[in-house]
Amino acid sequence: MRTNIFIRADSSTRMGTGHIMRCLTLAEELRDAGAVVNFVTRAHPGNLNELIRKKRFRCHELPGVDALGATIEKHHDSRSEYTSWLAVSQQRDAEETIEAFSSIRPDWLIVDHYGLDEDWENILRPYVSKIMVIDDLADRRHDSDLLLDQNFFVDGERRYDKLIPPSCTKLLSPKYALLRREFRECRKHLRERSGEVKRILVFLGGSDPENFTGMAIEALSEFELLHLQVDVVIGSQNPNREKIKRLVQTRPRTMLHIQAINMAELMCAADLAIGAGGSTTWERCCLGLPCIVIPIAKNQIGSTTDLNYRGAIMSLGGDERSLPNRIQSAVMRLIENPKDVVEIAKTGIEMVPCDGVNDVTALLIGQLSEIKLTHREATLADSKLYWYWANDPEVRRNAFNSKPISWEDHQIWFNSRIENLKTKLLIFESKYGAVGQVRLEGIESQKTISYSVARQFRGMGIGTKMIAQVVSVNPSYAGRFVAEVKKENRVSIGIFQKLGFNQWDIIGKNAFGFSFERLSTNI
User: Is CB count within 10 Å lower at the N or C end of the chain?
Assistant: First the structure.
């Protein structure tokens, strides 16, 4: 059965095009892997909804700003800059998104929107199987099973610790960057960079309402830089399109590209770039293209600062009024120091391996048959993780006591099990973090086995791998393993049958019993 995925993201002149563009990259990979992908987007001014359709994805369009009128001004809070991007309340947006599903229950809902948070996700939770969030702000809570932040931050591993459930899988850093196939192909044929600067690529975002593009062209129009070849790229919705055209026409050796479809080719041909701090950062790094980066939005400042410190870019912040002069000075400095150009290129290549989108795709469609698992004994620090797993609706349905578990009752239970020598609480982990747990209870000669798999890793054979590892580990946890499974729990029944457990009917309990015998506890 094909994986059904919905993506909720927006684009506009005001918020830019980056969210939609990176989601399109992921959507194309998912479709090629066999998934059915739909977009839910709002019709804001300067949107890319037509591009989504040209890419042959169904686009469920929500009412835009013009249709909503004064509603926009009614939903401001401490994050008003981002919540106003939504144009409606989260409640209304959630209701309209649910309507777009048209009775379909998505396997995954992917959310890439600064105006949406845990409140919105809580409303959607009953209507979807799993939720993935793409973010880089780390400024609000999320109810997500998978979180992707492809940016680089010095404190990247800790930024979301208090903002997501402990059961959420975190994909952090540029090693998970959502790069289009053209960049991955070009990476295989990179030329060795000498550090000499002859050709510059200028691209400062798809919309660029502040016209940083024009400032860059102005800087490169100074006499001492007129010998450089320049490629200028803008989006089709750029509000300064005519101004930029006139600037390009007055500067020799300059070409304008509108909604370029050959960005990888342009980056490979360039010796240096002038760009923004968004998603194209990782495209440039992947291809070893050194860049003078201008953080054009507040959310780009932190990552740009940390990348500059790492030596992967040259960052320019500060007053916009002096920006042309500072761009000119930065370009001159790099022209005069080719070794610096080479070092920036090497650092970028090292940071971005270029195959991260394959990992993300495999997780979303469940193609992790070769995933390697290790296990360890749980500690008191794992208590909240176990609580989240235990209260998962599917886990509760399959449990003989299906009532939700309070945090207070769980703490008492967990602490007692950690201290009990007859109990083993085992957490299984992969390169993506924790994937599930196995509980063993009883004496050494016989232990009762139970397990659960984290929601985002179900359907990937994880349960089978965990149980197989437990019953085969040496020295053994027990000489005999037994389990009880509800008859309606077909997945667990199939796992125990596949692993060669003996099966019998438990009379009067609507359950099957299973047992597995080891020849020796020390083999």
Answer: N
